[in-house]
Design brief:
- By secondary structure, the chain is mostly helical.
- It has three domains: about 120 residues, no CATH class; about 70 residues, no CATH class; about 130 residues, no CATH class.
- The protein contains 14 helices and four strands.
- Strands 1-2-4-3 form a four-stranded antiparallel beta sheet.
- A hairpin with a 4-residue loop joins strand 1 and strand 2.
- Helix 2 packs across helix 3, helix 3 packs across helix 8 and helix 11 crosses helix 12.
- It starts with a helix and ends with a helix.
């Protein structure tokens, strides 16, 4: 879906300066204050179907240039959108997602939808599992057949892409006059957000982050940049860190900067994957599995591109062994 940038920018500027929209600005102000404090109460929740509230929220958060805060807003709006889609009838769902340019068609006989394959592959890279790989789909005349649940997930990603386009437009057009809000409001949001971020996510001790494979480095970097990782990516990080000796407390710390961090849920998952509650200590997925889930970031890494390298832990052991050997040799010189 494309956006009319000029119309979006002009509309936001009108809302910011026109007294007619004072109540709307107040709602957005309180909503964003709740968002940065993780108090996602419905009292001040904005209506994602109200373009004015959505556009103003995106413009304000984009002005902060704080990626983690922007991701938190996108995730909140994404989840609201997904919940709305789940409550729609089959035909209503098709109409709603087509507002995003999905070009979905519903078949009453099969109770399934058809999506153009290029739409499917555009919005599924961040969805984990074989269900969202084109290789596993039924492809006919350029269309992929999907269930209602799959269509909702793919459309959810399209909605996030739409939010990103709005954010880019707001940043490139430098919307900076927020005189309709308290003085320095974007800075206030940044300060509150950073105050709530825990700095204890730094890895320490005998663990050598420089020896991590590119996939793990990138996934941890995405967490710190405020990206909401897929379940597979989270599983890979926990399994990897546990198997190289990180404590559950350290692993928990890595996830504390995730925009959707939930302490009790994260603890439950970490304890399960590390075997504390499940009795089974899981290893991270093999390279082949990570590749099939779009979680491979080897690019020009020489070691990663060796055909015999099959597992992230194998990479770490080789790198770590070489590091210790070099250190020992340097100490004896």
């Amino acid at each position: 879906m494309e956006i009319d940038v000029d119309n979006f920018i002009e509309r936001v500027r009108t809302i910011l300066r026109d007294p007619e929209y004072t109540d709307l600005r107040n709602r957005v102000e309180q909503f964003l204050l709740d968002l940065v404090s993780r108090d996602h109460s419905e009292t001040y929740a904005i209506d994602h179907r109200n373009n004015d509230e959505l556009n103003l929220s995106v413009a304000l958060v984009s002005a902060t240039r704080e990626r983690g805060l922007r991701s938190r807003l996108f995730i909140y709006l994404r989840d609201k959108y997904e919940k709305e889609l789940g409550a729609l009838s089959a035909t209503e769902l098709g109409d709603r997602v087509n507002e995003l340019g999905m070009d979905a068609s519903y078949s009453i006989d099969s109770d399934l939808y058809e999506l153009p394959f290029y739409i499917f592959i555009r919005y599924t890279p961040h969805l984990s599992g074989p269900y969202y790989r084109l290789t596993f789909q039924r492809l006919r005349r350029g269309f992929v057949t999907v269930t209602k649940e799959m269509l909702i997930k793919v459309s959810r990603e399209a909605f996030v892409d739409y939010l990103r386009m709005l954010s880019v437009a707001a940043e490139e057009n430098k919307i900076q006059d927020f005189s309709g809000f308290p003085r320095g409001f974007p800075d206030t949001l940044v300060n509150l957000y950073r105050a709530g971020s825990d700095s204890s996510s730094q890895l320490a001790g005998h663990i050598e982050p420089d020896d991590f494979p590119p996939c793990v480095k990138e996934m941890i970097k995405q967490i710190r940049d405020g990206v909401n990782l897929s379940h597979m990516a989270r599983f890979a990080i926990v399994g990897f860190l546990h198997n190289i000796g990180a404590s559950n407390k350290v692993i928990m710390g890595v996830f504390k900067q995730a925009p959707d961090f939930n302490e009790s849920m994260t603890k439950y998952q970490v304890d399960h994957i590390t075997g504390l509650t499940s009795g089974t200590e899981y290893s991270p997925p093999r390279c082949l599995v990570l590749q099939s889930n779009h979680l491979c970031y080897k690019e020009g890494d020489t070691l990663c591109n060796q055909e015999w390298l099959k597992h992230p832990l194998q990479y770490y052991k080789i790198k770590n062994k070489a590091r210790l050997k070099n250190k020992k040799e340097s100490e004896t010189v």
